[in-house]
Amino acid sequence: MSSPSVDPVHLPLSALLRDIADRPAPTLSIGELMESFGPRAMGALLLVFGLICTLPLPPGSTTVFGAPLLLLAPQLLLGSGAPWLPARLRARTLQRAQLRKALPGPLRWLERAEALSRPRLIFLFGPVGVRMMGLVCTVLALVLILPIPLGNMLPGAAVSVLALALVQRDGLLALAGYALAALSAGVLMLAFDIIVHAAGQLIGALSAA
Known about the structure:
It contains ten helices and two strands; from the N terminus they run H-E-H-H-H-H-E-H-H-H-H-H. The protein is mostly helical. The protein has one domain (13-208). Strands 1-2 form a two-stranded antiparallel ribbon. The protein is globular.
């Protein structure tokens, strides 16, 4: 539950995340995290899991952390304002010590973005615009759950920027998120083309041997 001294509605998301990480309980469940975010839970959860996916994690980690994104983003696409996660996932816990260790870098980025962000280009957050965000985040989540070496950073960053844009109602951030999503697609297509070309050359060389 939220600390009684903290207003989850008006507190900047970076400050709320810092408060959540600094609470004395050693663990934090995903369900408690959802409750702490209050009415901003949909965008905030997308942001948190997107930020986690930008970190240099061991192979296969983004498959785990991308799974909640794959559950949340389609809900945004379908127009749901409040997030739903299955009870088993809500009950999963995070170690606060690990959160405190991992958060400083992402929080510095988030604090700078919040300082520059403000509501603008609000028309991008109408029903069609929000569903478009949900569609793009769903595609990015599908990429994130694939075991692609170093393939998590750009898609994770794109989800994070789009999620922050949703929380802040900042259309300029949303456009930056769409640009990052397009860049992610371009890089992945280029990498796929290089891999296919290299595989073709290898097969040709083995056939000629």
